[in-house]
Amino acid sequence: MKEFDQETIETKEIEPKKKKSSLIRETLESIVIAVILAIVIRMFIVEPFYIPSGSMEPTLLVNDRIIVSKISYHLGGPAHGDVVVFRYPDDTSRNFVKRLIAVPGDTVELRDSNLHINGNISPENYLFPTLQFADYGPTTVPDGYYFMLGDNRNSSEDSRSWGFMSEDLIIGKSVLIYWPLERFRLID
Q1: Catalytic member of 55, 156, 159, 174
Q2: Are residues 171 and 152 part of one domain?
Q3: pLDDT score at 173
Q4: Contact call for residues 70 and 46 (beta carbons, < 8 A)
Q5: Are strands 95-102 and 83-87 parallel, antiparallel or unpaired?
């Protein structure tokens, strides 16, 4: 029979405790890092949003879930046709999603169910083909503002009712429908 000295026995008893506390510490570190990364990603890079209304049909449907890029407009400014999420001008605690129709300096007019930008008809292939909507304008977009419209013009509260949207209200560009899965696609 082999004899062990007291020091060897004590070392063997301590090792499992060290391994257990090391595993707990590593797990907690991983969780903390994951939470910090999730917060940073959501605050500065991308954020998910839910579509509660039909104002953007047929592009976005009720109950769609979308991903919004918060860095897109740091790399380049908003452009005609972008689908943008922004804080509602009349109540900044609410978020809206609309299509950017006109940029600063543009003259926008809705006439005979056609969009006119700077006097020229602008094609809108994203609208329902038979959609008819009321005339509006002409009006010129001031510096620092945008003109926003819902794709479902007759069921949309947009720049026609609350005016121009200030650029500082922009959250980001809608880039992807991720839910429901059968509608998974990039947003035009």
Answers
A1: 55
A2: yes
A3: 96
A4: yes
A5: antiparallel
Looking at every residue in the chain, the average pLDDT score rounds to 89
pLDDT in tens, 125-139: 999 989 999 999 999
Question: Which domain does 38 fall in, by range?
Answer: 1-44
Burial of 64: CB neighbours in 10 Å, binned 0-12, 13-18, 19+: buried
The one-letter code for the residue type at 129 is P
- What percent of the chain has pLDDT above 70? 88
Same domain, 149 and 87: yes
The pTM of the full predicted model, rounded to 2 decimals, is: 0.81
Q: Does residue 159 carry a catalytic annotation?
A: no
Quick: pLDDT tens for 31-69: 888 888 777 766 767 899 999 999 999 999 999 999 999
Residues 100 and 34 in one domain: no
Of 70, 98, 159, 173, which residue is the catalytic one? Answer: 98
Query: Is 173 considered catalytic here?
Result: no
CA nearest neighbour of 81 among 107, 101, 52: 101
